[in-house]
Design the sequence.
């Protein structure tokens, strides 16, 4: 204990520190010295319990009196009155219990001194000796075969948890799925969610169409569709061709001022669809990345790194808009294997 | 002041201050909150009167023949629907240049608005003002409207039409108190930042479905208080300030010694 001396014996060593004031004198509560106050506290607890009872009754009355009638306001009235009744029922019990404990139960103050955290030296030595005896008895140092078998069993067991976990979390590990979408050469562009194919002549200047691939009704109701749609959604916009600046290698990707861009943000994949018709800016609602549709959907603000991938489009013989091919790059946010 | 200073250490002083602050915030909001404008549709068409009105009130910016300029759009071919939308909601004539023309009390009555609309419609064909039947919420299918609204409108106007912010001071207005006729016209004409949703994109029936869905939102939420329906901002504010405040208050009360 000698090395702890300066921490336990500060006052004698340093005259500047103040003396331990000790435990303050016990203050009696009003209820302890005044019988009327004690009675009052008791009544307060009873009132709190009574509030709880009233809350319970109100909740039951509300359940029978305000049945949800199918309208919004009816449902709201029902849930609101039920909830308020329950809230007061529980609040009353809670407040009453705490008030009871604080004001009526005894208030004897108890102090406990802190004790040494480590065990006494002789107990520690005994524990170490006992462990050593166990190791010697098992003979793990001498019996190599036993040691190997035990370690193998212990090391292999976690596989029973790790293998199913990793395999189900990962789903499948086919990352090439991220490179391709449902779009293919000649596939018509259709409106989301109604699935009507879109004629180029219907897309007036300033129009925005939310687009999905024109697949069969059957495919659209299949379980796979949501994953496919999540990759394939496109925003179709017609600008005045004079406002449109196109890169040389993409001159043939638009049709008469109509451009189609992936709706999946290249930052973390939110649907980018807040289009400002006058500035031609396209905003992502999640992190305010802003893309300039008039200039190849380049990033003009925000955390996105790459322009939105463009879907090359043209028209078929009936005047409907069709895709020339799939996107030329993976849509959406970066991933390890994207290499760009 | 002395009496006040003596009480500033009172144990209820923080509570009184908090209530005062909430009251002032609420009061200031109530004073500054925009008041809704209303307008009725009219039928009389007097192109000549409309032209005179136009030349007196609109030609300064849009030009004597509504041809526009580099910075001001031409009104040839915008149609009666665009004029009725802009004028009946008070957006036009603009009071001042700003990020966008904002809604204010209409400057013209219904008859003058229809005369202006008739004049502009005579300059070139454009979308007409929808009939009462086309915008009747009772005839639309709110469920179909919800699906179309979610895809086409919700990203700017919020899932229940509570509005939202755009860039550089522009915003998508709340649709809660907008006349169904104006909702229809906005989709048809694409005013300001809003893109056009023509009849090939969102068919007239689907437009009425959207109006029905928005009308349904007037009842509020079945779940209780919507807190402005602004999502994590207002909900987080309540949870952190009011919810956590109550929890801290309860913890302090439980821990305090009874007097």
Sequence:
């Amino acid at each position: 204990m000698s090395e702890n001396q300066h921490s336990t014996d500060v006052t004698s060593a340093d005259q500047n520190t103040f003396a331990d004031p000790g435990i303050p004198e016990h203050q009696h509560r009003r209820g302890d010295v005044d019988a009327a106050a004690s009675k009052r506290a008791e009544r307060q607890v009873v009132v709190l319990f009574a509030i709880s009872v009233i809350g319970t009754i109100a909740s039951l009355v509300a359940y029978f009196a305000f049945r949800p009638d199918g309208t919004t306001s009816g449902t709201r009235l029902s849930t609101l009155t039920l909830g308020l009744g329950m809230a007061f029922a529980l609040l009353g019990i809670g407040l009453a219990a705490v008030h009871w404990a604080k004001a009526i139960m005894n208030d004897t103050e108890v102090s406990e001194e802190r004790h040494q955290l480590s065990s006494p030296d002789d107990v520690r030595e005994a524990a170490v000796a006992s462990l050593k005896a166990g190791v010697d008895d098992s003979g793990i140092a001498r019996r190599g075969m036993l040691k190997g078998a035990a370690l193998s069993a212990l090391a292999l067991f976690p596989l029973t948890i790790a293998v199913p976990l990793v395999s189900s979390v990962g789903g499948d590990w086919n990352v090439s799925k991220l490179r391709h979408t449902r779009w293919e050469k000649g596939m018509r562009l259709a409106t989301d969610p109604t699935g009507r194919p879109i004629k180029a002549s219907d897309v007036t200047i300033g129009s925005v169409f939310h687009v999905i691939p024109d697949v069969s009704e059957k495919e659209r109701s299949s379980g796979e569709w949501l994953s496919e749609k999540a990759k394939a959604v496109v925003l179709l916009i017609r600008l005045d061709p004079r406002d449109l600046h196109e890169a040389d290698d993409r001159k043939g990707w638009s049709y008469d001022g109509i451009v189609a861009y992936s709706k999946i943000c290249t930052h973390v994949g939110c649907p980018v669809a807040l289009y400002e018709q006058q500035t031609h800016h396209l905003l992502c609602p999640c992190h305010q990345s802003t893309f300039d549709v008039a200039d190849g959907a380049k990033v003009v603000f925000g955390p996105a790194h790459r322009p939105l991938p463009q879907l090359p489009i043209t028209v078929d013989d009936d005047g409907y808009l069709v895709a020339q091919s799939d996107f030329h790059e993976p849509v959406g946010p970066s991933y390890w294997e994207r290499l760009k | 002041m002395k009496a006040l200073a003596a009480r500033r250490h009172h144990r209820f002083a923080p509570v009184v201050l908090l209530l005062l602050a909430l009251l002032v915030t609420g009061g200031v909001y109530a004073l500054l909150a925009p008041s809704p404008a209303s307008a009725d549709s009219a039928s009389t068409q007097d192109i000549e009167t409309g032209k005179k009105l136009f030349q007196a009130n609109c030609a300064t910016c849009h030009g004597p023949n509504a041809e526009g300029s580099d910075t001001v759009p031409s009104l040839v071919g915008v149609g009666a629907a665009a004029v009725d939308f802009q004028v009946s909601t008070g957006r036009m004539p603009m009071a001042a240049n700003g990020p966008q023309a904002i809604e204010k009390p209409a400057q013209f009555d219904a008859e003058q608005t229809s005369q202006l609309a008739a004049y502009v419609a005579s300059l070139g064909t454009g979308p007409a003002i929808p009939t009462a039947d086309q915008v009747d919420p009772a005839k639309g299918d709110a469920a179909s409207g919800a699906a179309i609204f979610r895809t086409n409108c919700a990203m700017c106007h919020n899932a229940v039409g509570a509005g939202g912010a755009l860039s550089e001071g522009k915003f998508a207005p709340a649709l809660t108190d907008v006349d169904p006729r104006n909702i229809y016209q906005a989709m048809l004409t694409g005013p300001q930042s809003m893109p056009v949703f023509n009849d090939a994109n969102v068919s007239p029936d689907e437009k009425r479905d959207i109006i029905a869905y928005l009308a349904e939102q007037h009842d509020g939420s079945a779940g209780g208080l919507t807190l402005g329906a602004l999502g994590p901002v207002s909900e987080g504010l309540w949870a952190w300030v009011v919810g956590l405040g109550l929890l801290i208050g309860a913890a302090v009360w439980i821990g305090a010694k009874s007097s």
Notes: Residues 37-127 of chain B form a domain with the Cytochrome Bc1 Complex; Chain D, domain 2 fold (CATH 1.10.760.10). DSSP finds eleven helices and two strands in chain B.
